[in-house]
Amino acid sequence: MKTNISILLAVFGLAFSPALRAADEHEHKDGDKAEHAHEHAKKEAGPNGGRIVTATDPHFEFFVTPERKVKITFLGEDGKAVALKEQTATAIGGERAKPTKLAFAKDGESLLSDKSLPEGNEMPIVLQVKISKEAKTVTEKFNVNLAKCPTCEHAEYACTCAHGGE
User: Fold this and answer.
1) What's the CATH number of domain 51-165, 3.40.50.300, 2.60.40.10, 3.30.499.10, 2.60.120.260?
2) Distance of CA 143 to CAs 19, 25, 121, Å?
């Protein structure tokens, strides 16, 4: 009986937990509650129309070319391509049972994969980027959805819209 009361109290406590507020209401750092009528940081596509990854400094654009090769372009604070220095990258994508491993080589101001992504419009990818020989490797994992977004001009993996709750 005590267990049932403990469970009931736990469920009741969670129901009124601030962490479970309505999705359209949240608290700002200054303590004010705000409706979601305003926008947070606007998602932007890279100069080629790809996904901007902010896990490194400088940030970089992850872009899938029409040939399904991956192009990585490092960006300055102005959002434009910066010259490559010692940056390196590797990626693994596709099916877990038969993954496609990508190596990258310098191609102008970008790194370009040696192989194309496997067939299909949606696949997981594990991307590893190293800014310099001494730097720690940064790993990014995300799904690459190559379907066209219905409301913006980008593919879903680089979509700048607010749909889908992302």
Assistant:
1) 2.60.40.10
2) 27, 28, 10
Q: By three-state DSSP, how is residue 156 classified?
A: helix
Is the bond preceding residue 47 a cis peptide, omega within 30 degrees? no
> Nearest-CA neighbor of 36 among 49, 21, 47, 50?
21
- Which is it for the CA torsion 11, 13, 18, 21, positive or negative? positive
The reported pTM is 0.72
Query: What tens digit of pLDDT does each residue of 17-73 get?
Result: 444 444 444 444 444 444 444 444 567 888 999 999 999 999 999 999 999 999 999
User: What length does the chain have?
Assistant: 166
CA–CA separation, 138 vs 56, rounded Å?
Answer: 7
C-alpha to C-alpha distance for 2 and 143, rounded to whole angstroms: 45
